[in-house]
């Protein structure tokens, strides 16, 4: 007859403890991931619930109305009429040889900047194309068609594009 090896009391305690921990871990996992998911609706960053239901007929109708309004607005902007939205023109510098400006409230390519400087009946003009620059439209530096003399010049800068227009007139002391 063979002798059976008996586990020591210490080994039994370790095995029972490990089995108990495994059962408790499994129960916690089950509770946390399966049984406790009754109210886990998604929410926005500010805690508002997100509605995941399909759109109602009223919501679909509102969406279609909004789409139609956007299309009508875009069509009105592309038509050539005299009621273009107003752009804010800002003249930043006038020298004897050039003028610089930008247009705020507009972010587009292809507009035209035209400057006219007037002093005692003398008129100088300059034109440039505009381009997108960060968050506004920049007029490329405009070189006068003739050098202007020192003095207090009245400078009018006009911006025009297919979608907007604007103008500013300002007195500059040219040195």
Summary, kept brief:
The chain is 28% helix and 34% strand. The protein has 175 residues and is an alpha+beta fold. The longest helix is centred in the N-terminal third of the chain and has 27 residues, at 9-35.
Question: How would you sum up this structure, described in words?
Answer:
- The chain is an alpha+beta fold.
- It has a domain at 88-169: Immunoglobulin-like, CATH 2.60.40.
- Helix content is 28%, strand content 34%.
- The protein has 2 helices and 8 strands, in the order H-H-E-E-E-E-E-E-E-E.
- The protein has helices spanning 9-35, 57-78, and strands at residues 88-94, 98-104, 112-119, 122-133, 136-139, 142-143, 151-160, 165-174.
- Strands 1, 2, 3, 4, 5, 6, 7 and 8 form an 8-stranded antiparallel β-sheet that branches.
- A hairpin with a 4-residue loop joins strand 7 (151-160) and strand 8 (165-174).
- It starts with 8 loop residues before the first helix and ends with a strand.
Reconstruct the topology from this structure.
Elements: H1 9-35, H2 57-78, E1 88-94, E2 98-104, E3 112-119, E4 122-133, E5 136-139, E6 142-143, E7 151-160, E8 165-174
Antiparallel strand pairs: 1-2, 2-5, 2-6, 3-4, 3-7, 4-5, 7-8
| Helix content estimate | 25-40%
| SSE run | HHEEEEEEEE
| Shape summary | elongated
* Annotation field: number of helices: 2
Q: What is the fold named in CATH at topology level of the domain at 88-169?
A: Immunoglobulin-like
- Assign the structural class, choosing from mainly alpha, mainly beta, alpha/beta, alpha+beta, or little secondary structure: alpha+beta
Unreliable parts:
none
At the first level of CATH, the class of the domain at 88-169 is: Mainly Beta
Number of strands: 8
Please state the CA-atom Rg, rounded to the nearest Å: 37 Å
Strand content: 25-35%
CATH architecture of the domain at 88-169: Sandwich
What is the residue-averaged pLDDT?
87
Question: What is the first-to-last residue Cα distance?
Answer: 120 Å
Major sheet: 8 strands, antiparallel
């Amino acid at each position: 007859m063979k002798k059976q090896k008996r586990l020591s009391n210490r080994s039994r305690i370790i095995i029972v403890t490990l089995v108990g921990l495994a059962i408790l871990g499994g129960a916690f996992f089950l509770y946390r991931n399966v049984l406790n998911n009754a109210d886990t609706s998604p929410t926005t960053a500010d805690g508002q619930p997100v509605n995941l239901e399909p759109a109602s007929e009223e919501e679909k109708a509102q969406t279609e109305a909004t789409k139609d309004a956007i299309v009508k607005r875009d069509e009105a902007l592309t038509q050539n009429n005299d009621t273009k939205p107003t752009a804010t023109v800002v003249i930043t510098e006038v020298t004897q040889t050039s003028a610089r400006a930008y247009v705020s409230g507009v972010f587009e390519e292809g507009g035209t900047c035209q400057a006219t400087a007037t002093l005692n009946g003398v008129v100088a003009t300059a034109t440039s194309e505009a381009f997108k620059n960060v968050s506004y439209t920049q007029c490329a530096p405009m070189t006068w068609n003739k050098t202007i003399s020192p003095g207090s010049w009245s400078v009018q800068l006009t911006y025009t594009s297919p979608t907007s227009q604007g103008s500013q007139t300002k007195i500059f002391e040219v040195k």
